[in-house]
């Protein structure tokens, strides 16, 4: 989302909803559209002061906060008006990490579970990505929802570019 001027991504930023007695968690990832002065340092994000709210929240379940992430936070984010909430749940299968995904989309003020596509990916309309689990189940993979290309991390992209440059150099030497 780096190239989308109207979207700001925060990690572990406490969100102050300003809604009655609603808890104010710090989502693992929150995507907020149309933030005024997105580069301004913040210790927390106040929805009433900023005039915008997260449109997408992602939580990675931790054993310590499992109940909150799976059973309490969906209600918090629904009441706060967050259109999409995705949960990544790392579990163990045969002593190996194995991820499962679930998500909710706001429809008429209620959260409805997102239905995975035939490949098990959840489509985030807000972010324009599909989130899936690798075939081996050992990592989360993000795909461009329109091109279906895997979106690489900066490190993965740099590694791929380095390999490509090495291949081009080898081809030039052979020629």
Defining traits:
alpha+beta; 11 strands
Number of strands: 11
Major sheet description? 6 strands, mixed
Unreliable spans are none
> How would you write the strand order of the largest sheet?
1-3-5-6-7-8
What is the number of helices?
Answer: 3
Span of the ends, CA to CA: 40 Å
Average pLDDT metric:
88
The helix/strand order is EEEEHEHEEEEEEH
Q: In which range does the helix fraction lie? A: 10-25%
Strand content: 25-35%
Give the overall shape, derived from the CA principal axes: globular
In short:
The protein is 23% helix and 35% strand. The chain has 175 residues and is of the alpha+beta class. The chain has a 6-stranded mixed β-sheet, with helices on one face. It has a 3-stranded antiparallel β-sheet with strand order 9-10-11, with no helix packed on it. A two-stranded parallel sheet has the order 2-4.
């Amino acid at each position: 989302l780096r190239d989308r001027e109207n979207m700001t991504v925060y990690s572990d930023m406490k969100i102050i909803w300003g809604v009655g007695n609603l808890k104010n968690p710090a989502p693992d990832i929150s995507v907020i559209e149309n933030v005024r002065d997105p580069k301004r340092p913040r210790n927390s994000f106040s929805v009433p002061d900023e005039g915008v709210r997260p449109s997408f929240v992602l939580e990675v379940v931790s054993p310590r906060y499992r109940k909150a992430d799976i059973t309490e936070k969906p209600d918090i984010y629904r009441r706060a008006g967050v259109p999409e909430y995705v949960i990544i749940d790392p579990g163990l299968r045969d002593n190996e990490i194995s991820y499962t995904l679930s998500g909710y989309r706001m429809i008429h003020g209620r959260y409805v579970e997102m239905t995975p596509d035939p490949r098990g990916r959840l489509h985030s309309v807000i972010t324009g990505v599909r989130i899936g689990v690798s075939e081996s189940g050992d990592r989360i993979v993000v795909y461009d929802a329109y091109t279906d290309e895997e979106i690489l991390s900066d490190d993965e992209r740099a590694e791929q570019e380095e390999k490509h440059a090495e291949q081009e150099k080898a081809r030039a030497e052979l020629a």
